[in-house]
Amino acid sequence: MTLSFNKRHDVRGSSGVAQRALFTSLLAITLMLTAQSGWGACTLSVLGVIFGSYDTFSNVPLDNAGGNVSVTCDVPKPYTVALSPGSGTYTSRSMSGAGSSLSYNLFVDPTRLIVWGDGTPGTSLVAGAAIGASHTIYARIPERQNVPVGVYADPVIVTLSF
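and the corresponding structure tokens:
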């Protein structure tokens, strides 16, 4: 599954006037299901995050809460959902492209204080115990990143354990 993000990149012309150039970033999410024998079946569905326009001159981070991970099981059972750090770290995930990298991160909470990771120190898993549940992916691209126009991508693995 590939998730696409459209952003705007400001470019200063020779007159100093800000011009806008549209560029796209991609975040590839690979699904990996971890099943335990005798526990029944669960499925995982991921809806991509769309950041929208990104202004490199903005003093405000670009936030989004449009991503979603849905878990459906045939019977109620406890499960966890983990996200890999992609090509960066849990402290700062990184999309690469156009000879540059664009920092971002994924969170479990709307305040964007708890990084969605694998449960190691500084990260949290998302847990549930229902037949079906939906979990929002809260995302943030920090402000004032000077990146060239281009396509940016980062492979993130989603792991469902039950």
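(Above: one complete record from the training split.) The chain has one domain: 2-145+152-161.
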